[in-house]
Amino acid sequence: MNPAHVIPSLAHSGHDAEGRLVALAFDSTPPLPDPGANPWLVALDGSDNAQRAIAHAAEQTALMNAGALHLIHVQPWLSREAAEAELAHRALGATARARGLLDARGLPWRLHVAMGDPAERILERAAELRASCVVIGSRGLNVVERLLFGSVTDKVIHLSPVPVLLVP
């Protein structure tokens, strides 16, 4: 069976004050031996840029022979019903290639799933993990798109209290 099609173990879930599901975490099989050991946080959105970012992070942590690969995928806000029915499915679908790459290399990981503003959720998780590094792919917005919308990458680079590794 393709490792990307294996449903990972649910490590935890989080709900807001109204009881809406807002966060999930999944562990690889086997799970990270020490999730707090030199944690690297890799932002994933399902794009080719994110795939290059995870490949680079995998190479670097394998070379160091120490480091916990934490992945983060952020979905826009969903209604209570949609979050319960779709949050895990959407996140697992968007991260299947990245998880498959790590599984094929025998690298354990933890996938964090959140809802909201991607840059804010990435920075929050980096702080909670005390991440050594945030790895993120560039999205390749043109000049007009960057002026109108900004980019998650730009926000993370400018607001991160930890080093950010930008993978083109």
Report on this model:
With 168 residues, the chain is an alpha/beta fold. It has one domain (3-167): Rossmann fold (3-Layer(aba) Sandwich), CATH 3.40.50. It is built from 6 helices and 7 strands, in the order E-E-E-H-E-H-H-E-H-E-H-H-E. The chain has helices at 48-64, 80-94, 96-104, 118-129, 143-149, 152-159, and strands spanning 9-15, 21-27, 39-43, 68-75, 109-115, 133-137, 164-167. Helix 1 packs parallel to helix 3 (96-104). The protein is globular, with a radius of gyration of 15 Å. The termini are far apart. The mean pLDDT is 89.
- The outline comes out as globular
Query: CATH homologous superfamily, by name?
Result: HUPs
Q: Strand tally, please?
A: 7
Helix percent reads 40-55%
Q: How many separate domains?
A: 1
Overall average residue pLDDT? 89
